[in-house]
Design a protein that fits this description.
Blueprint lengths: L5 H45 L6 H14 L6 E3 L4 H8 L3 E4 L2 E6 L2 E7 L4 H4 L7 E5 L2 E2 L5 H8 L6 E8 L2 E8 L1 E4 L3 E7 L3 E6 L6 H13 L5 E5 L8 H9 L7 E7 L6 E4 L11 E5 L6 H11 L4 E4 L7 E8 L3 E11 L9 E2 L10 E2 L7 E3 L5 E3 L8 E2 L7 H8 L2 H12 L13 H10 L10 H15 L3 H20 L1 H4 L1 H26 L4 H11 L1 H9 L21
Parallel strand pairs: 11-12, 12-15, 15-16, 16-23
Antiparallel strand pairs: 1-18, 2-9, 3-4, 4-5, 5-6, 5-7, 7-8, 10-11, 13-14, 13-18, 17-18, 19-20, 21-22
């Protein structure tokens, strides 16, 4: 047997010690897991046997599982067998059996909010605004939204009978369900200045193929630039995002890297095909609801200096989930890694690992935000989503508009308008006349659309403080006069915010005739993000300056502490 010399012993001893510690740590983890499972199992058993009232054992277990997973992050979730199909439709596939409607629950009533063009409901002339009273003879009164959704869905080629109320009249329709395949790309086409536009709503199955097909069609027109609209796209399948980036980027380029606790979860994702549009000028639109895979596309194209990003800061979801099968046809979706864009940054905004004492989750502190460099040495930052190269202020609706929307007055008026007028102009040109807007104002004459403005709330706060300090009597005359002025001003809101309200009305009305495509096209002429994209693509010097980080397009400071981007005016 060979003997170990003193030098070998010195090297081997630390290895043995480290191995011993790891082995002990592993055994300790196994012991703790076994111990806790034993406690949980015994507790669950005693509750079922001994609790004073009857216990729903399944519900009790799901409550325990949900509480456990919620302590980690919102994306780690348990999916029981009964919810598998809904899960697949939400996160994996765009296909399901149904009639093609979107519904909303309103004071216990179920109203069709939109019908999808080309699908059974639209072909059968079901309309937005119709109230669904019965499905297959089953009254919907007292039903929950999920129950109604399940009643509408079913196997392909099966019939479903709906009784609806429209303008006070009851109508019954028998409709054959079809496979409802909602596209990932909801719209594509040529726009102003020979610019191609692609609206991508989600990153589910075949999303990259749909973007590719749209791009091929646009290239037939030799576009001067391409706009990819990812606004309000909550993400989906990571690999689809990589394929989409590959349409514009050369092969063998790292698009994103996921890094997990386990080595096998650390995976770089690279491009592998020749791009379709390697040199076409590119703009990506984002907003605060663009998340996950959307941020991978926007972040990687920004890091690679391949696209100009326009809009508002994105959501900031830098986590990767993977599903694992569990017994009895259930599964669990687990956050297994964080992802990093080509510059090395992770844009995760909320730190779920280090919660506050009360359990709340904090945003990554400004002091911890780190600067990274793009391929061309531009500054980008981690920690709080993707910051656009050109920041456009988010659209903020006035209180009067928010109230009219939330109380469904705009929705209901569009329903009434559809009844009175069988057709309208093209969605890109449709506009309500002043006389028609006056009719809407008259429609509101007997409606309650009272709301509290910020000024009114501040006045109320002033009154409360004045009463506490016993000074209200001294300032009452001034207070009453100011309150009266605010009240008078508020009555003028329908006039003051006329153009804003008119745009909302036009957009809702257009949807009744031209569906989702019409809604989008009608909004184009008011879209400031889109206008900025056209300006950038129309000016090659501006585009180049942004991507090179030169001149006025260099970022100023860190995000969260005065970060801004000059729009080049």
């Amino acid at each position: 047997m060979p003997r170990l010399n003193s030098s070998t012993k010195k090297i081997l001893l630390p290895v043995l010690i480290i191995t011993g510690i790891l082995s002990f740590s592993f055994r300790e983890d196994l012991f703790q897991a076994s111990k806790n499972l034993d406690i949980f199992s015994s507790l669950y058993k005693e509750l079922n046997i001994s609790y004073v009232d009857e216990v729903n054992s399944s519900q009790l277990m799901e409550t325990g599982i949900s509480a456990m997973l919620n302590s980690l992050d919102p994306y780690t979730e348990f999916v029981p067998e009964s919810e598998i199909e809904d899960y697949k439709m939400k996160y994996v596939s765009t296909q399901y059996g149904g009639i093609g409607t979107l519904t909303l629950s309103r004071e216990g009533r179920f109203i069709i909010s939109e019908t999808l063009e080309g699908f059974p409901a639209q072909k059968a002339d079901l309309r937005a605004g119709d109230e669904i009273l019965e499905i297959n003879g089953i009254p919907l009164k007292g039903k929950k939204y999920d129950q109604v959704s399940q009643l509408l869905k079913g196997s392909k080629n099966t019939a479903v009978k709906l009784t609806v109320k429209r303008y006070g009249e009851t109508i019954t329709k028998s409709i054959n369900r079809e496979e409802i395949s909602q596209p990932n790309v909801s719209y594509s086409g040529m726009m102003n200045n020979n610019v191609g536009y692609i609206k991508l709503d989600k990153f589910l199955e075949n999303s990259a193929k749909e973007v590719q097909d749209a791009l091929v069609n646009l290239q037939k027109n030799n576009p001067s630039g391409i706009i990819i609209d990812l606004r309000s796209n909550g993400g989906g399948i990571l690999q689809e995002a990589v394929k989409i980036v590959n349409l514009f980027v050369d092969p063998n380029v790292t698009v994103v890297t996921q890094k997990g606790k386990n080595k096998e979860k650390t995976i770089p994702y690279k491009t592998y095909n020749q791009p379709l549009a390697p040199n076409t000028p590119l703009v990506v639109l984002i907003n605060n609801r663009a998340a996950s895979a959307s941020e991978i596309v926007a972040g990687s194209l920004q890091d690679l200096d391949r696209a100009v990003i326009i809009g508002q800061r994105s959501y900031g979801k830098g986590l990767v989930q993977q599903t694992f099968n569990l017994p009895y046809n259930s599964l669990v979706k687990v956050t297994v890694a964080k992802y990093y864009t080509p510059s090395g940054r992770c844009i995760q905004a909320l730190d779920y690992t280090h919660r506050s004492v009360d359990g709340t989750v904090e945003k990554v502190a400004d002091s911890l935000i780190t600067e990274y460099k793009t391929k061309g040495n531009r500054s980008v930052y981690d920690g709080s989503g993707i910051y656009p190269d050109i920041a456009i202020p988010a659209v903020k609706l006035s209180p009067i508009s928010q109230t009219l929307m939330s109380r469904y007055y705009i929705f209901d008026y569009a329903t009434l308008y559809r009844k009175q007028k069988p057709s309208i102009a093209d969605p890109k040109t449709f506009k309500l006349t002043d006389a028609e807007y006056a009719e809407f104002v008259n429609y509101l004459s007997d409606k309650d659309y009272n709301y509290s403005t910020r000024t009114e709330r501040l006045l109320n706060d002033l009154k409360v403080e004045a009463e506490k300090e016993k000074k209200l009597t001294e300032i009452k005359a001034e207070y009453d006069a100011l309150k009266n002025k605010v009240s008078v001003s508020k009555k003028n809101d329908l006039s003051q915010f006329k153009e804003e309200i008119r745009r909302l009305l036009e957009n809702e009305i257009v949807t009744r005739y031209y569906f989702q495509k019409g809604r989008l096209e009608n909004g184009f002429r008011y879209d400031e993000d889109l206008k900025s994209a056209f300006n950038v693509l129309d000016n090659k010097a501006t585009l180049s300056a942004i991507l090179q980080g030169s001149g006025s397009y260099k970022s100023i400071g860190k995000p969260g502490s005065g970060f801004s981007a000059n729009a080049g005016k």
